[in-house]
Amino acid sequence: MVKEKLFAKMSRKKIVAGNWKMNLIAQEAIALVEAIAQLKQNNTAVELMVFPPAIYLQALQHTSLKVGAQNFHPAEKGAFTGELSLNQLKDVGASIVLIGHSERRELFLESNSFLKEKVDAAIAHKMPIIFCCGEPLSIREAGTALEFVTQQLTESLFHLSPAQIVDVTIAYEPIWAIGTGKTATVEEAEAMHKGIRAAIEAHYQSSEIADSVSILYGGSCNATNAAELFACPNVDGGLIGGAALDAASFIAIANAF
Ligand code: PEP
């Protein structure tokens, strides 16, 4: 049993992704991507990707790292002032998108049903997805975090077919841990990741499907705590905010596997 679980983890993609949020100007973004690409050398065990501000995607599109978009609008085009479509983002080199980051949910009021529209648009464009989920502190303290996260997945993601869900990467990011310096304990992270995998298995009636979905942890993950988080059987990498803005820290996190 332990051997089987180990095999399942080994066969899932390991990913370390940097969410740069609304930080850096062009020169800094280019310098950071170059420094990361140089430091990563031949570490092929982990897929590295960065999510810069969208205006810098074009300048970064020839890097050896995968580059993605932090946000997009699900419509094909039209009167959505200030928004960007998937076609536009693809045009400037985005090859993956974040959906459902808690800052989009909380600050820009993106609901589970709107996020479902984004998921469907990305699938229609064959655009790979990192789907973020996670509970606020009040829900964690009420002891209903897994139910809350399962509802996020159910309402935005679980309508996908088995063939579609296996290509989605999930990032579990407890909101109380994002940018706070307060990381989930190894026990809390593993319990939630295991719970998410169990929810996938229950919904799709398949342990193979559940075992093939990569689930990343996000929330004050850094060079010091990454190794113990990544050693958890159900943690397949990290979505990194603050520590992704420093090439050495980001690479140290990637090397923590
Ligand atoms: C994030 O915003 O996705 C994140 C994990 O941020 P931080 O690492 O800074 O907590």
Notes on the protein architecture:
The chain is an alpha/beta fold and 257 residues long. It has helices spanning 2-11, 26-40, 57-60, 86-91, 102-107, 112-124, 137-142, 145-156, 162-165, 186-204, 207-212, 226-230, 247-254; strands spanning 15-19, 47-51, 66-67, 97-99, 129-133, 169-172, 215-218, 237-240. It has an 8-stranded parallel beta sheet. The radius of gyration is 17 Å and the shape is globular. The model has no long low-confidence stretch (mean pLDDT 95). The structure holds phosphoenolpyruvate. The site of phosphoenolpyruvate has 13 residues, from strand 8.
Report a brief summary of the structure:
The protein is of the alpha/beta class.
Write the layout of secondary structure elements.
Layout: H1 2-11, E1 15-19, H2 26-40, E2 47-51, H3 57-60, E3 66-67, H4 86-91, E4 97-99, H5 102-107, H6 112-124, E5 129-133, H7 137-142, H8 145-156, H9 162-165, E6 169-172, H10 186-204, H11 207-212, E7 215-218, H12 226-230, E8 237-240, H13 247-254
Helix pairs in contact: 2-13, 6-8, 8-10
The protein binds phosphoenolpyruvate (PEP).
The site of phosphoenolpyruvate has 13 residues, from β8.
